[in-house]
Design a protein that fits this description.
The protein has 943 residues and is of the alpha/beta class. Helices cover 43% and strands 14% of the residues. The chain has an 8-stranded mixed sheet, sandwiched between helices. A 6-stranded mixed sheet has the order 1-5-2-6-7-8, sandwiched between helices. It has a 3-stranded mixed sheet with strand order 25-27-26. The radius of gyration is 59 Å and the shape is rod-shaped. The N and C termini lie far apart (152 Å).
Amino acid sequence: MDIGPFLLAFCLFPLHVSADSTCKLKAKFNLSGYKNVEKKKVVIGGMFPVHMRVSSSGGNTSRLPVSSGCEGFNLRTFRWTRTMLFAIDEINKREDLLPDTDLGYVIYDSCFTISKAVEGTLTYLTGQDEAVPNYRCGNGPPLAALVGAGGSDLSIATARILGLYHFPQVSYSSTCSALKSKFQFPTFLRTIPNDQHQSTAMAKLVIHFGWTWVGTISADDDYGKYGIKDFKEQVEEAGVCISFSETLPKVNSPENIQRIIQTLVKSTAKIIVVFSSDVDLSPLITELLRHNITNRTWIASEAWVTSALMLKPGASLLLGGTLGFAVKRASIPGLQHYLLDLDPYGDTLSEEFWETMFNCTLNYGKALRETRPRTSGSNSTDRGLPDGLCTGLETVAQLKNTYSDVSQLRITYSVYKAVYAVAHALHNLEHCEQGRGPFNGRDCTNISSFEPWQLMYYLKNVRYTVPHTGEEIYFDDGDVEGFYDIINWQFNSDGEISYVKVGHFNATAVPEEQMTIMNGSIVWNSDALEPPRSVCSDNCQPGTRKGIRQGEPVCCFDCIPCADGEISNTTNARECILCGEDDWSNEAHDACVPKIIEFLAFGEPLGITLIVISAFGALVTIAVGVVFIVNVGTPLVEANDAVLSLSLLFSLVVTFLCSIVFLGEPQNWSCMTSQVALALGFALCLSCIMSKAVVLMHRAQALKAARARSKAAAKAAKVAAQDAANVGSPDVIVTNTNNNNDLGVSVNPEVDILTCAHQRALAAVATLIQAVACTVWLILLPPHAIKNTSAQNIKIILECDEGSIVFICCVFAYDILLALIAFIFAFMARKLEDHFSEGKCMTFGMLVFFIVWISFVPAYLSTRGKFMVAVQIFAILASSFGLLTCIFLPKCYILLIKPERNKEDMMRPRTKPRDGTSTGTSASLATAATEVGTAVASSAIDD
């Protein structure tokens, strides 16, 4: 419970004392310390936590309350106390500092307890051994300032009281950032840095080593609470997570200590930041050693970083590698000699120190009561001293302990500076020049009768150089600069510790240069060479992103691989970055690389193969054309209309060669040329076939009609002959009605209605329609080259965009229409037989054409990229080769291999095996018509 508010109210309560009034003392304090005020001009107060705690009073309320005593002698803080005495003694001997003034002192033991600190403060203000609030009793020397009172919570309690009277307080170890407030603590100053700087330094240390998962332990006082609060705010802003946050009890509590230990065991954090005094932390360290908990790295605040209270047996395994921040270190010449030159009978504190160190007692009666007198013949003096009695002649120098160790004078140095700060302020007050003073119109004050607030003015503005070190001290709104040494605990094989400086922190430097640390000089826990890793989750490497776990701190996450097309090129990326349209993620997903540009190139094996096949087809087609030109006057060529045949061959050359244009990197001109050339080439080819087929179909229909009439005439003649025979006329001659040469064809000239000119005109018109459609297509929405980035993720496919689906569908639908018409006509003319049947050849050619393009559709739709082009070229070549082979191979066979069949009589019709009738070809229809007329005439004559 904080008794400060009650004490403030008590101190502020006005006491009206008259001559007849009787002052009644409510309580008598039990204080121990040093006091020397006789014949002194000025007195400096001091307060040090020489003991660790107050003794238990037992809570008995049936008798007069007595102020609690103290227990747990602290060698380190006793050294601080003696350092103040040394500094005052040194100042009194100086001729350049307060030469005419002897300083006295009143020093109390706060027992590391707020109540004792308040007792000492009230007693100090009163000027007597009893506390009389609001009154200064006695006529002794004036009080200058209080040096103390140890921990931050003690100083806060005393500063609230001293601030009421504007009484200066200079602290040597109270670092709590709350004490910076001049509204609450107007007369508080300190020679040790503000904890805001230390919290920043700790945060920067954690961030420097990349620790993102740390635990915190703080003392249950203002020092621990404010220090950890500032630390948490800064590291959490930098993305560090707090695994756990525990508070050390101020009063011994085994249950709370065990709870903290269980938390430490369960946590995966390897870094523990501790803002606590050595006294509060010591019980936890003892239990940790008992449980053999190791493999942790401790970050120490200045309050315990060089404290020997932590150095218990086995501490090297637990605390080895500890990093911490310590205030400036200095050597103070003569201090060690002063510490060792101690009179055990001089005061109660020195007596207790002596008895503690040598495990004996200086009280003869006590020793006599507790031990038996030494018998004669035993190791005893002539006087027969009892066992356990100190002689007073023991040597402190032989004891290597914290008290006599002056190798790490840090808080001790701060005490030294605090005493000198008060002395320099008093010196400036004493040597004030009248008329140039700071009070009431440049007045000065007398050092023998000054008020505390007057000394406060000089303290706030003091600037001096510390003896022996040369450090310049001044107060910036009550604080000094934030400078720390970074200390590393290094143990040797014998378990002896060395506090090795591995860097420093200077709060006045620019942020980038505030911390300097030598990583190579640090010895980590268990002699590890590398800094320990303390993370809730391992870093997400480039190529992955952090996926936050629901309900857990942000430092606990899963590493999720970036999706295809996304990358992360930093560690612990929160989001993946989408690659540009022309880029794609590499295999590791940590960089965007250009997509593979794909098109069917001329130089690759597939492209070369297609070029060779296309060229071969074109050359073969040209060769066929040459054969036809050479044989242009022969019956076979004339019978097939040489112009249409050559036009058909030209269109096939165009289709063969246009397939080459599909190769290479698509350009706007190549896209237009390839599509239009293909459409026009097939339009001309199919128009020529249709023109040929329509004539053959018309002639076949005419021949079929003529055959029907012939059969009817023959049947009529037969009937007439039979009738005549039945009558018995001897003049009637019955002819053979199954004349094999009877074609049943009349000499009707309508068979040749469609001439060669009609065929050519039909082919030209059909091709012209396609040409007009293609021209409109090219003008309105022409095909053009595009980059297709959506078809395949890792590739950019250079291809041709049709420009308009409607136009390309119309254009090639027209080609399909021509192909269907040509196929129908050719199919209908397939029975127009002779030694050479062109109808059948065209029918087979169109069947191949349809089979190729029907197969092309699913193959084209199931491929991507350059293979789509390859499939299209294969379809073009296959259909072209099919037409060339089916239509022209039989003709070339006759023209080149069987030239003897290329005669007019070979074009004549041949007999029909089963019914004695014959069919004919277009090449012999004229001759057949004449023969049919003769047969009919003979039949009539016979009749």
